[in-house]
Amino acid sequence: MASSEVSPVPRRPGRWLVRVGTACFLVGMVFVGIVFLPFFAGSSAQPALAAVGTMLGPLGFLLVLLGIGRQAAANNRAAREASAPSP
């Protein structure tokens, strides 16, 4: 039997921040829809938990931006190391 080596997946800094941030943003947008739905139905009652859940939208947006920033910094660092003259 031949042994096959599995090559490790390269680490990409900030990748999990982008994924978690995207999920938070989408959940926050669902809560925004839940908050505005009663107004379209003619009711003035607003669910308190949904109002708190809307804060996930901006939090997710911030996490995505942080993740993209970390990925850009890692790409710049890798490009600098690749172009640096070796002694």
What can you see in these coordinates?
- The protein is an all-alpha fold.
- It has 3 helices and no strands.
- Helix 1 packs antiparallel against helix 3 (about 55-85).
- It is elongated, with a radius of gyration of 21 Å.
Distance between the termini: 43 Å
| Whole-number mean pLDDT | 85
SS strand fraction: under 5%
Number of distinct beta strands: 0
Q: Structural class given helices, strands, pairing?
A: mainly alpha
Q: What characterizes the major β-sheet?
A: none
Number of helices: 3
SSE succession: HHH
Low-pLDDT stretches are none
Q: Can you give the helix content as a percent range?
A: 55-70%
Radius of gyration: 21 Å
Principal-axes geometry comes out as: elongated
The gist of it:
This protein has 87 residues and is mainly alpha-helical. Helices cover 69% and strands 0% of the residues.
How is this fold's topology laid out?
Elements: H1 15-40, H2 48-53, H3 56-83
What labels would you give this structure?
3 helices; mainly alpha; 87 residues; elongated
